[in-house]
C-alpha cells in the first residue's frame, strides 16, 4: 500500500479512536476506545398517524413497536406496511430516546419501530451483538447519556452521542465477555428471585401474625394469668354511648342542612349479634364478644379540598393512596386511621399527627373506646372488597359495613394484643429491611460485573490475539 493510501486510513483511525491520553480507564493493550458515532450509527423510527392504527394483525400491516411493548403485549398496534417504515429484527438493539425510559436498551421484538426508539447500526465484523447490548446497558454508556444537557422529553440526537467514548476488545474476547457476563448475571438473578420469594413470605407472614392476634391466639396465656376488670360487654355498652352522641350530632347537622337524618343505631342489634355469635362460635376466646362494626369504630367520609386550595404547610392531606400534600389551614385533630373509599379500597394508613382526609377516603371519627392501634390492625386485615359497589369505580358501602359482625376483646386485652403485634412486626420489619438492603447490593453487584467486564478484568482476555485496531484498519482499507 502506498503512502498516499495509508495517510487517509491513519486519519480515519485518529478521528475514530480515543487517544491514549484521553482514555477514561485502563484497558488491555489489544483493546481500543472509540467515539460512539465513529463506529456506530443510530436511526430514529417513524410515527404513522393514529388514524392508521389497528389493534389486530391484518394483511398488509406491520406491528408498530413502542417502548411499552417490551414489558407487555397488552397494547399491540399494527399499521399499514409502507416503504417509509423503519424496521427491526428480534436481534437488533434499540435505545429509548424520550421521557422516563430515556436510555433503556431494548431488544427481542420484530416489526416497525416508532420515533421514541432509535436503532443501533453496527458492523458485525467489529461488534458481537450481545457484547454491544451489555456495553450500552453499562455505566460506560448510561452515565454519559444522563449528562446530556437536553431534556428528557426532547431526548438525544446523533450529535449528542458522538462524544461518548466506549471500549472495544477483539471480537473473540467480546464473545468470551458475553459468556462470562451472562453466567454471572444469571447467578445474581437467581439470588434476586430468592429475595423476591422471601419478600412475599414476609408479607404473608405479616398477615398471618395479625390474623392470629385478632383471633386471640397470641394472648391465650395472658388471659389465663390476668384478671380483666372491665369485660368486653361493658366496653361495648360504653362504646354505644359514644355512638349515640355521634348520631345526635349528625342529626343536628342534617337538620341544619335540610337533609334526612341518618339511621339510628340500635343497642338491640348488639345484643342479637352477640348472643347468636356466642352460641354458634365455640372458638371465640373467653371474654370476647361479637358485635357490629360500628362498635369497633365509626368511619366518616373525607372532605373535599380542591387542588387550588392546597399549599405547602403543616398538615398532611391524606387520600385513598396515602399522604399526598400539605395545607396549613385545614386539619382533623388527633392521631387517626384512614382507609380508601373509592378506587384504592382497603388501603389503610395509621397516622400519628393531625391530618386532612380527602373525600376519596374514610377516616375514623371515633374509636369508640377501643385502642386506636388495635383498630388499625383490625382494619388492615379486614376484607373491605366484600363491601364495595360493582360500579365502574368501586366504592365502599359504609352503611352495610357498619352492620357487619366483628369480634372484640376487652380494652385491656386490646392493649396487650397491640403490644405483642408491635413487637413481632418490628422484628419482621427489621428482617425485611435487611433483605431489601441485600437486594440493593445485588443491583450494585450487577453493575460491578459489567464495569469489570468492559475494563478487561474478568480474566477472559487473551493478550496474544490481534489488536482490534488492526482489524479496524483492515476494514477501512477495504472501504
CATH architecture annotation name of the largest domain: Alpha-Beta Complex
How helical, in percent, are the residues? 40-55%
Stretches where pLDDT is under 50 for at least 5 consecutive residues are: 1-7, 271-281
CATH class of the largest domain: Alpha Beta
User: How would a crystallographer describe the biggest sheet?
Assistant: 4 strands, antiparallel
CATH topology of the largest domain: Adenine-n6-DNA-methyltransferase TaqI, Chain A, domain 2
Q: Oligomeric form of this entry?
A: single chain
Tally of contiguous helical segments: 13
Quote the distance from N terminus to C terminus: 14 Å
Q: Count up the domains.
A: 2
Structure classification: alpha+beta
| Shape type | elongated
Q: What is the average of the pLDDT values? A: 81
Amino acid at each position: 500500500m502506498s503512502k498516499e493510501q495509508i495517510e487517509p486510513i491513519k486519519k480515519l483511525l485518529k478521528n475514530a479512536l480515543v487517544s491514549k491520553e484521553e482514555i477514561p480507564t485502563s484497558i488491555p493493550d489489544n483493546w481500543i476506545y472509540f467515539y460512539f458515532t465513529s463506529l456506530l450509527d443510530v436511526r430514529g423510527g417513524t410515527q404513522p398517524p393514529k388514524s392508521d392504527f389497528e389493534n389486530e394483525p391484518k394483511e398488509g400491516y406491520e406491528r408498530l413497536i413502542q417502548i411499552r411493548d417490551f414489558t407487555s403485549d397488552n397494547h399491540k398496534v399494527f399499521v399499514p406496511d409502507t416503504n417509509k417504515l423503519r424496521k427491526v429484527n428480534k436481534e437488533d438493539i434499540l435505545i429509548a430516546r424520550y421521557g422516563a425510559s430515556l436510555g433503556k436498551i431494548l431488544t427481542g421484538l420484530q416489526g416497525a419501530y416508532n420515533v421514541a426508539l432509535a436503532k443501533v447500526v453496527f458492523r458485525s465484523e467489529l461488534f458481537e451483538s450481545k457484547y454491544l447490548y451489555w456495553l450500552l446497558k453499562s455505566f460506560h454508556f448510561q452515565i454519559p447519556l444522563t449528562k446530556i444537557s437536553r431534556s428528557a422529553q426532547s431526548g438525544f440526537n446523533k450529535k449528542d452521542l458522538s462524544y461518548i467514548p466506549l471500549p472495544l476488545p477483539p471480537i473473540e474476547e467480546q464473545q468470551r465477555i458475553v459468556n462470562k457476563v451472562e453466567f454471572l448475571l444469571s447467578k445474581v438473578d437467581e439470588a434476586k428471585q430468592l429475595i423476591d420469594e422471601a419478600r412475599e413470605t414476609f408479607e404473608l407472614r405479616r398477615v398471618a401474625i395479625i390474623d392470629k392476634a385478632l383471633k386471640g391466639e397470641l394472648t391465650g396465656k395472658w388471659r389465663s394469668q390476668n384478671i380483666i376488670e372491665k369485660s368486653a360487654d361493658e366496653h361495648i355498652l360504653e362504646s354505644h354511648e359514644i355512638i349515640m352522641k355521634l348520631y345526635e350530632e349528625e342529626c343536628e347537622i342534617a337538620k341544619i342542612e335540610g337533609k334526612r337524618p341518618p339511621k339510628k343505631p340500635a343497642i338491640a342489634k348488639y345484643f342479637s349479634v352477640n348472643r347468636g355469635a356466642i352460641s354458634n362460635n365455640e372458638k371465640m376466646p373467653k371474654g370476647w364478644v361479637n358485635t357490629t362494626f360500628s362498635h369497633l369504630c365509626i368511619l366518616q367520609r373525607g372532605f373535599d379540598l380542591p387542588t387550588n386550595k392546597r399549599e405547602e404547610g403543616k398538615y398532611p392531606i391524606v387520600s385513598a393512596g396515602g399522604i399526598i400534600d400539605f395545607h396549613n389551614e385545614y386539619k382533623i385533630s388527633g392521631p387517626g386511621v384512614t382507609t380508601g373509599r373509592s378506587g384504592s379500597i382497603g388501603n389503610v394508613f395509621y397516622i400519628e399527627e393531625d391530618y386532612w382526609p380527602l373525600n376519596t377516603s374514610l377516616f375514623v371519627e371515633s374509636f369508640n373506646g377501643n385502642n386506636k392501634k388495635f383498630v388499625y390492625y383490625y382494619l388492615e386485615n379486614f376484607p373491605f372488597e366484600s363491601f364495595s359497589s360493582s360500579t365502574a369505580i368501586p366504592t365502599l358501602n359504609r352503611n352495610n359495613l357498619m352492620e357487619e359482625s366483628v369480634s372484640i376483646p376487652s380494652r385491656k386485652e386490646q392493649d396487650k394484643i397491640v403490644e405483642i403485634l408491635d413487637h413481632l412486626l418490628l422484628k419482621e420489619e427489621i428482617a425485611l429491611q435487611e433483605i431489601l438492603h441485600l437486594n440493593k447490593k445485588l443491583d450494585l453487584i450487577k453493575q460491578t460485573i459489567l464495569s469489570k467486564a468492559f475494563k478487561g478484568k474478568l480474566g477472559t482476555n487473551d493478550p496474544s490475539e490481534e489488536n482490534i485496531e488492526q482489524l479496524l484498519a483492515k476494514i477501512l482499507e477495504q472501504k
